[in-house]
Design a protein that fits this description.
Layout (H helix, E strand, L loop, with lengths): L6 E12 L3 E12 L3 E5 L6 H8 L7 E6 L2 E2 L4 H5 L2 E4 L11 H11 L4 H14 L15 H14 L4 E5 L7 H16 L3 E6 L2 H7 L2 E6 L2 E6 L1 H5 L6 E6 L11 E4 L2 E6 L2 H13 L5 E4 L2 H8 L6
Parallel strand pairs: 3-8, 3-9, 6-7, 7-8
Antiparallel strand pairs: 1-2, 1-4, 4-5, 9-10, 11-13, 11-14, 12-13
Helix pairs in contact: 3-4, 3-5, 4-5, 5-6
Length: about 300
């Protein structure tokens, strides 16, 4: 993360209401700094895609304003577009295009010369571990490979601000981690990365900071550690429901026939695990996760 604290994206009061008075965004105030990976975390329908589409000048807000590198997404959309590249959530790869076609020609369209375009395309395709498939038509690729080809094109663009909407959806574990590594590398080079996801491990692994959204509202912003500290519990123990006197604990989540017991200290967690072991019952203790914090802060209920 860039410690200069120079903003790349500033959004103030950004709201969007669709037909039939559906409020997709209810007023977003958000600043993303240059050189950081910023993740917007939220369930499906939280408003993540709507917000990114407004930043990318694809959608006009109902209210509010946003600036990218000083240019208004409302009043200066052409200037904004020169500094951004995006992978939309629902982007489809053209059947006859190859990963090389996407990366190389995207660079040319952005004004790079041929030599630079070739170098950037090669670097990005190799970063996505697709060099052996660079000339393979997308119609013969898997869904995950098509997705990586589109991500490679965005990386090759060398845009100062890169936006990715659910970038690793459909990718396997190796592909996901490869994308994470590439995004971290770009941030280290001074690029600003903003992405959306509903996957907790992705948000925790790749982000410098993250925002939690729910039902069109911004719930909280901070580092993973800062957000976890907003929960008044530090540990959790997973136990079978029939083995616990639930009246002894103030915070419990039921997941099928198991209970997640939330506790404030490691001593309480160790004591509970010890009691379970004495009963011959398997119990697991661990620090509170980002998902635990998300469920509590976003007001989601697990049934």
């Amino acid at each position: 993360m860039n410690n200069g604290i120079e903003p790349a994206i500033i959004a103030k009061g950004v709201a969007k209401t669709y037909e039939k008075k559906v409020q997709a965004l209810k007023g977003m105030d958000l600043t993303v700094n240059k050189g950081e990976v910023f993740t917007i975390l939220g369930p499906n329908g939280a408003g993540k895609t709507t917000f990114l589409r407004i930043l990318c000048t694809q959608l006009m807000p109902t209210a509010g304003e946003a600036h990218i590198l000083g240019d208004s997404v409302i009043n200066d959309p052409e200037a904004v577009r020169k500094n951004i590249a995006m992978v939309p959530q629902d982007a489809m790869a053209y059947a006859n295009f190859t990963p090389w076609d996407y990366a190389y020609y995207f660079c040319l369209l952005r004004g790079m010369d041929k030599a630079t375009s070739k170098a950037k395309a090669e670097e990005a395709i190799k970063a996505m571990l697709m060099w052996d498939k660079k000339d393979t038509p997308c119609q013969s690729m898997s869904g995950g490979e098509k997705r990586r080809a589109l991500i490679a094109a965005t990386l090759a663009s060398d845009a100062p601000v890169m936006m990715l909407d659910e970038p690793t959806s459909g990718l396997d574990a190796i592909g996901r981690r490869n994308v994470w590594s590439a995004l971290r590398d770009r941030a280290a080079q001074g690029k600003t990365i903003i992405l959306t996801t509903h996957m907790m491990d992705e948000a925790e692994m790749v982000s410098d900071r993250l925002a939690i959204m729910s039902k069109g509202q911004l719930i909280t912003i901070g580092t993973t550690a800062e957000i976890k500290k907003k929960v008044p519990f530090r540990y959790r123990v997973i136990v079978p429901e029939e083995e616990i006197d639930k009246s002894k604990f103030s915070e419990i989540t039921k997941i099928g026939d198991r209970l997640v017991i939330y506790l404030k200290t490691d001593e309480e967690a160790i004591e509970l695990v010890r009691d379970m072991i004495k009963k011959g019952v398997q119990a697991e203790a661990a620090p509170v996760t980002l998902e635990d914090a998300f469920v509590r802060l976003a007001g989601e209920v697990l049934e």
